[in-house]
Amino acid sequence: MISSLSGRVAHIEENSLTLEISGLGFKVNVPRPLLQEAHIGQVLSLSTYLVVRENELSLYGFPTMETRDLFILLIGVDRVGPRLALNILSHLSTANLRAAVTGGQSAVLSKVPGVGSKTAQKILLHLTDRIQPVDGDGYLAAMQIGDGELLEALTGLGYSVVEAQAALQSLPTDAPEALEERLKLALRYFSTPS
Q1: pTM of the shown model
Q2: Domain segments of the chain: what residues?
């Protein structure tokens, strides 16, 4: 089993990159945030997981062992293959995924392209006892009921799940409960220069 790789980025594709190590090029499928930060010539160290199929060997790489472990848990869910698991980790940070699972927030999971409500429920059912909350990432678990609607409204406006969750996290603790008011406050997050 190839559990980690460290090498120079030789090529970047839509969903993968090629790491060159001692003259060998390893094609590694990686989450989108990692792909967007990578550049040719950069030296990367990845925790990896090798998926063996009858006609194919596919290598998946992650910035941390924790992310790799979440990937392994996700592919253990019925009907969640490596590509869908990678897509989930491309749209949700590890903290947001943990918080969604520990808080039973299937709406957050179902906002990921390719994850329907049934699959989101299966993920929650499979991972609930396997993922423990970590201090500092439980804000989704404590989300108000209306925040699921707010998340849906923001993603409906074209923001990604990650962007919408960041806007939700930026809401003040004394924010009004009315959806319209919370939406106005959340939209201010995007107009504020970072």
Answers
A1: 0.74
A2: 4-62, 65-127, 146-191
